[in-house]
Amino acid sequence: MPLFGKSQKGPAEVVKALKEAVNALEKGDKKAEKAQEDVSKNLVLIKNMLYGTSESEPQTDIIVAQLAQELYNSNLLLLLVQNLNRIDFEGKKDVAQVFNNILRRQIGTRSPTVEYICTKSEILYTLMSGYEHQEIALNCGTMLRECARYEALAKIMLYSEDFYNFFRYVEVSTFDIASDAFSTFKELLTRHKLLCADFLETNYDKVFNHYQRLLNSENYVTRRQSLKLLGELLLDRHNFTVMTRYISNPDNLKLMMNMLKERSRNIQFEAFHVFKVFVANPNKPKPILDILLRNQDKLVEFLMKFHTDRAEDEQFNDEKAYLIRQIKELKPLPGH
Amino acid sequence: MTTFKGNFGDYKIISILGECSEGKAAVHLAKHIPSSTMVALKRFYMDKMTNAEQTYSVELEIATAKQLQHPNILQYHTNFVHGFDVYVVSPLMAYCSCRDLLNQHFNNGLPQQAILIILRDLLCALAYMHRNGYIHRAIKASHVLVSETGKSCLTGFKYSCLRVLKGKWQNNVHSFLSDPKPVLNWTSPELLEQNLQGYNDQSDMYSVGMFICELANGSEPFLGMACTLMLTEKLRGCVPQLLDCTTVPRQTEGDCVISPIIVNRRFSKDLHEVTGLCLSRNPNHRPKAGKLLNHSLFKSIKKRTLSLNELLKPALPLSDKVAFNREDVENLDVNHFSNLALCTWDF
Prior knowledge:
Number of helices of chain B: 12
Radius of gyration of chain A: 26 Å
CATH class of the largest domain in chain B: Mainly Alpha
Order of helices and strands of chain A: HHHHHHHHHHHHHHHHHHHH
Protein name (chain A): Protein Mo25
Family (chain A): Belongs to the Mo25 family.
Structural class of chain A: mainly alpha
Pfam family, one (chain A): Mo25
Oligomer: heterodimer
Order of helices and strands of chain B: EEEHEEHHEEEEEEHHHHHHHHH
Structural class of chain B: alpha+beta
Number of helices of chain A: 20
Number of strands of chain B: 11
Distance between the termini of chain A: 91 Å
Radius of gyration of chain B: 20 Å
InterPro entries (chain A): ARM-like, ARM-type_fold, Mo25
Shape of chain A: elongated
Mean pLDDT of chain A: 93
GO molecular function (chain A): protein serine/threonine kinase activator activity
Mean pLDDT of chain B: 87
């Protein structure tokens, strides 16, 4: 006797049952408890069709195709994501697992679920707002990062106004949620090189205005993570235009020079990797050159003593020696 | 229900319970001021962690624990950043870890009934994890904590991995531990081998076998043995045994002195057998966590002859050593805890 009544419920029935249960749960009337049970039960059924269990293999492609089609037609993915906070603890994880499996579905080179979500971008916006709620933040995070693997979906997220909420999410006081939001944020800004470079170029002012706040955050982890990511972004050759623009602004240089002197050694070290780009730039604008010249001796002295215990890190020592040489040789622009 | 918020000011640190992860984290006994309850405060020194792998393992440990909800898995109330450190608030486990119990009171191992009670809780936690696609990968005495009421909770999730990957259930996993040194002696041969076959959740059952030996004998398995020798021993199928009158000869030659406790005690045949099965070289011969719970071995617990608290005497829960929920806590002499500072927690 199978655990839940007739075992051979087809995809259409399960999807229908799940939809009804989620709707009942949403209404939140006295049937909610029963609805909760039904949601969990049907989620497990769908999950088992997709993943199989220890006793059974996943269902055949035909069944999975039917299931996917039912999910698209019934609009259930959106409904599940919208009601995620109402679903019980294990059910939340099942939703994420079902979502992530369906998302990866492929027919030849096509990804039908990705195409479907492109037409239902509300799913993405709802997932992004999941970071507002502690109890679903991490579940939404796993789904968002799966979505971010697909350029089309990453593009929708990057270019939406909601993207700028990430600058708030990565700074929340709960460490695990902030870190999860940061991984998603980083994925969106680095995964698809051309898309990201294009996005950063066209939205330079807005993005870096927001980014500045992260670099000045009270939260040590946020400050450290965002500084590290900044270094990675600037050193990626796809972002050449963005980098050139960033290292032409004397305020950015001042910020990095201050961070070189922060109490945290990790912040100092990450700041070094951004600072070096300013110095290595062969065409330094006058305001940048002026700052470096004004601090020429101090910088040389500072760098000589900077992280001298990293003897085994050859690349770092080479870079440091190079910077010291460059700074020593700095001369004012001719004619000034 | 008490809600724990991520404000550093809500917690008053009373003493240090131990250091872990080579000094990159510490566990404190602390008081949650709004509710006057005692909690364990684990503190990760983030600025001491220089590479991304280390900081990632902190994220992973907390995120994994949050995805697991079971009475025998240590729950985290909340976590937050303060200064350069990340803090995790969890319920106080008043007997600390099984490793601490062995170190302080049971150098020759725990009595069989105590082992069984702890083992049953551990298996419940593991069965739940395996059902949900997690492999713990670091079962050892220091990762099993005992509460004031004698309930055991599993922790140490920075080593765990998920079998659900890329939208698929992986029959076998091939990833290796990122910081394996502290757990190598408990690790299964197939995981250490790192061959194409990989390993699955039965790898944990091998570590359970090691864990039983550790609780019964008091010492870590393969203690003091070079890693390469330990590996070849495991690959050859050489495993530790439960030391009692059936496995240790009463008369020994030379200077080797064996504690009379060991030669006079006798673990049940069942326990010897189950330990042996868990330590099978072939993962398929090991019992599943969920199935092992039905073993007749655990029937003796149901009679409830003694509670775990009784069995663990002379060890006392922290609560009996501390004036709890009183203003005394404010003026507590930290030297009181000097003996506790010796214990190392390794989550």
